[in-house]
């Protein structure tokens, strides 16, 4: 058969099928292929039935033969070994200049490795984050491609055609950078998503347990919040979830077991933040909150034994709801500030030229963390492209100043009342730490030097000059090597 297809997609799960249909709707001819080839026929006879721009392949050879050169093949498979296995199965059939695209949630070091490996064979490689779930894949996802720079012109038109659009029509897809940059940006997106979800859950817990609000009342609160500064996909769906009922009239959310799952991207973000020495504390707390939720049986037993206060609220209910809204907004600012701190440090560490305002706009629509808020981040980087921390931007400074009293009242009440708010708390703790010109690490360094001769710097001496004290009078003068992990 004559090669007429623009791109092939391997992996016909929900995301893969919807991306194919999205590409086909935009005029691109797409080859559908799957390891279990019966799924190809099911797809052609059901979801893609009658779509002239979708054709099926039942073998790698047939798929390759249908593609125009340079061939473009997108993989939508589970991260890890499955990606490497399929790459190896494709290699004997490819020619110099052909392009492989990994659209799954691959760990960015794997993408760095694969890019180098395929470039050494004369091929191009792209690792692209795709966010927005089933709906986004079908109607317009947020896409974060990175990899071989020469590959971007080969896929730019397709990717930007199928991507979501910001309110001004800008596609939510742009080149992130070399090798693993695209998957790294997607990893941080997912980490921020963990933080946003945990913050919303803590606000829900305060409204439910603190103020004793019904699901209908909370639905109205979140719907109202979604009209203002917190306007976002996650706030919107929270409102919809709170109002959803079973056929028997019971609220679905009340029937769901309080144990959260995770697929690893939040953990990857937290681990990498430790590797880079960046205090991305809120995402870390969000990951740990999911881990704690999974300890359901242990928590049920502990609840029978361990004592604590009960939430009693006797103040202005409406005012406290507004306090929670402002605490949520302030904590969200800290979470994104930490996320962009991590992106900036990663750019230095991995030699990427990341466009931070551009990343905010790629996230502005289509993805899970899409929100009005991201437009404000874009504006902050437009004002100052070298902005070191979002907290230092004039707009975000003003919002934090406005929210700070509410933020502190909410945390004080939650601590007094025994309602756990780990993400709210770590956000405020980070803010107070970041604005402190002096922290107690001088004592910590003295302790390290006392027991391990790890040395310290002095405020009356130049930075980079290290000292050791014989604290006991009978220790030696030999110090350990100075190093930082």
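-> sequence recovered:
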């Amino acid at each position: 058969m004559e090669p007429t297809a623009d791109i092939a997609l391997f992996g016909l799960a929900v995301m893969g099928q919807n991306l194919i249909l999205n590409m086909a709707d935009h005029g691109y001819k797409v080859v559908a292929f799957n390891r279990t080839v019966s799924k190809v026929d099911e797809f052609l006879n059901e979801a893609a039935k009658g779509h002239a721009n979708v054709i099926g392949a039942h073998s790698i050879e047939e798929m390759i033969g249908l593609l125009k050169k340079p061939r473009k093949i997108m993989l939508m498979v589970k991260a890890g070994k499955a990606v490497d296995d399929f790459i190896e199965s494709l290699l004997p059939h490819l020619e110099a200049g052909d392009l492989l695209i990994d659209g799954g949630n691959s760990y960015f070091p794997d993408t760095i490795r694969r890019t180098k490996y395929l470039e050494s064979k004369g091929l191009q490689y792209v690792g692209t984050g795709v966010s927005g779930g089933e709906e986004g894949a079908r109607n317009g996802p947020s896409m974060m491609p990175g990899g071989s720079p020469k590959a971007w012109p080969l896929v730019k038109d397709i990717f930007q055609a199928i991507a979501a659009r910001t309110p001004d029509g800008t596609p939510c897809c742009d080149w992130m950078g070399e090798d693993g940059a695209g998957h790294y940006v997607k990893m941080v997106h997912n980490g921020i998503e963990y933080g946003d979800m945990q913050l919303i859950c803590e606000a829900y817990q305060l409204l439910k347990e603190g103020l004793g609000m019904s699901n209908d009342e909370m639905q109205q609160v979140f719907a109202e919040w979604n009209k203002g500064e917190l306007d976002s996909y996650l706030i919107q769906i929270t409102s919809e979830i709170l109002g959803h009922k079973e056929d028997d009239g019971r609220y679905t959310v009340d029937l769901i077991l309080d144990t959260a799952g995770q697929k690893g991207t939040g953990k990857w973000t937290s681990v990498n933040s430790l590797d880079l020495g960046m205090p991305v504390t809120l995402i870390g707390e969000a990951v740990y909150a999911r881990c704690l939720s999974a300890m359901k049986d242990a928590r049920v037993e502990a609840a029978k034994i361990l004592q604590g206060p009960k939430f009693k609220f006797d103040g202005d209910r409406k005012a406290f709801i507004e306090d929670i809204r402002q605490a949520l907004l302030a904590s969200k600012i800290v979470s994104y500030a930490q996320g962009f701190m991590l992106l900036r440090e990663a750019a230095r560490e991995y030699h990427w030229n990341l466009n931070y305002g551009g990343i905010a706009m790629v996230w502005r629509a289509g993805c899970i963390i899409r929100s009005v808020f991201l437009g404000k981040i874009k504006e902050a980087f437009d004002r100052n492209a070298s902005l070191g921390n979002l907290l230092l931007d004039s707009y975000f400074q003003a919002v934090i100043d406005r929210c700070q009293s509410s933020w502190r009242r909410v945390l004080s009440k939650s601590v007094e009342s025994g309602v756990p708010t780990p993400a709210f708390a770590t956000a405020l703790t980070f803010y107070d730490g970041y604005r402190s010109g002096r922290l107690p690490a001088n004592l910590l360094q003295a302790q390290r030097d006392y027991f391990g001769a790890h040395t310290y710097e002095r405020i009356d001496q130049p930075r980079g000059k290290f000292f050791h004290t014989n604290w006991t009078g009978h220790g030696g003068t030999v110090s350990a090597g100075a190093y930082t992990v």
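The first helix runs from residue 14 to 25.
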